[in-house]
Known about the structure:
globular, 33% helix, single chain, Rossmann fold, alpha/beta
Amino acid sequence: xxxxxxxxxxxxxxxxxxxxxxxxxxxxxxxxxxxxxxxxxxxxxxxxxxxxxxxxxxxxxxxxxxxxxxxxxxxxxxxxxxxxxxxxxxxxxxxxxxxxxxxxxxxxxxxxxxxxxxxxxxxxxxxxxxxxxxxxxxxxxxxxxxxxxxxxxxxxxxx
Length: 159
């Protein structure tokens, strides 16, 4: 039985990750990473599991100092979340907290499985561009994305 940390990054990304967890089945032990204040995602967990909260990293609209500060805090939260849940792997279809959690997991020797969101048919997400270099398994949901990510695995859509 594998211990899996599923990243619920909010909105449609949470729904896609929930479908991924559902496909992986109940024979694993799950933990879930979510944003603080996200009261909807806990109800989307297909299987029970511990919830850890990770703050969002800096974004495009932040000042340079704010971006660096928020990203550092998110990375520290992510390290704590990965250490606390001690997963064998991190799985995500996501944005925002997906990148720092995945990087923290790789730093700690954990496997990372990333699925590029189904919303991206022709262009890559920022998270996808970053995690393509680090993920142990990288999936795309559209055959057109194989041109952007040649080493990715195309296995169809999750939903």
